[in-house]
Amino acid sequence: MTTIADPKAPRAARPGPGRRSTRGNTELYGWVFMRVSGVLLLILIFTHLWSSLISGEGISQVDFGFVAGKWANPFWQVWDLTMLWLAMIHGTNGMRTIVNDYAEKDSTRLVLKSALYLAFTVVVVLGTLVIFTFDPCPAGAPMDLLPDVCSDLP
Amino acid sequence: MTATLEKTAPGPGSAESGLGAVPSFQVTLRVQRYLPTDAGDLPAGQDVGAPTPGEYRWDEFTLTMHGTDRVLDALHKVKWEHDGSLTFRRSCAHGVCGSDAMRINGRNRLACKTLLKDLDLSKPVVVEPIKGLPVLKDLVVDMEPFFASYREIMPFLVTTGTEPTKERLQSAKERERFDDTTKCILCAACTTSCPVFWTDGQYFGPAAIVNAHRFIFDSRDEGAAQRLEILNDKEGVWRCRTTFNCTEACPRGIEVTKAIQEVKRAMITRTF
Ligand code: HEM
Ligand code: SF4
Ligand code: FES
Fold it and tell me: Looking at chain B, which residue has its C-alpha nearest residue A26?
């Protein structure tokens, strides 16, 4: 007959008459977004993987020049930007759900979610900046490392 | 060849199992005990095996039970013959009232519908209170948070206009639409098997949604929009992560997860 660690219950009931109502469509939109973005990510990610790692010369083609070449093309710029934003919003919202599911205290939730949103902002801002300000032909770089588009420049 | 009457291999402790007799066997019951801090003085003769106030403890009882016995019978045997201080709820003892939901070998089930012979008796049968609700004593939990969510979804017929002089008619097909969710006995096995409910107990929980479903899809009811509004909450249907624990736990075989999904779908088609 041993004493066991205190299980979750009993726990003090929250004060106030029952649950505070938090009605609204926010969680509905979040739920629908996870599914819609999931389908889009399926297409975006697998096309991205195929075009980079399988088509053409396969994985050995990936170098500075390859990436620079892709980002010189507005099509891949928009593709990668959509992928970045959708994956980040999808992933962050998924992590938010996990925090809600596992964190028991409101203070733990606040800390974890703050860290999550900070990470989201840093990655999305940096990623977007890189896609748009990327210079495929840095001045003074050896020509053989650069994509073909650079040789067309004066 | 000598004709010898082969002795049949003894079943689990089949001491007296003759033809037609119900086999009996040894069962070890491992029960979680808890006595609240404000328990006060125990009645004389009841303090024999009672735990220290405010502490949890495991008690083991070895009992001789029969093939037709359920976990509830084992608990009765303990209470009536070994330790009268063991506390649990039961009323009908036949799977109708929903008062004896408990965690048996890690699964939420009704003690009165769980036959001992269906469990692995080579190990002790572990009996705990259902999780996520405050334990009052031993296997008895405070069901109030559970019923509060139930009351919130308005579990009663909502209509407008003049009352019909006779019954409110409904076709067999319309009745079939919500038949599954009419079977609920409010035992809380589903809600207290849900990991989302365990975390902070704010989630409405499967049982409230099942009982909302029962009226939302009833052709005679006119409160569907209101109920959908109530469950379209941060703590409502969207917290469901389709783990299927509730469907697995329901002693009435209700397809709980499916009912929740149907309520979600009704909200989505209403919004878009
Ligand atoms: C490949 C295509 C993808 C599909 C089809 C997909 C689909 C989904 C769906 C439907 C959910 C919701 C699950 C639920 O509500 O229970 C989800 C959750 C989640 N997704 Fe994705 N997703 C994809 C890619 C990604 C990516 C790239 C990330 C990371 C950036 C990610 C991170 C997450 C996280 C963290 C969750 C929450 C975990 C959970 O719900 O259990 N997913 N995903
Ligand atoms: S749905 Fe099933 S498990 Fe949930 S309260 Fe009703 S009868 Fe019990
Ligand atoms: S005692 Fe009534 S359901 Fe088990």
Answer: B234
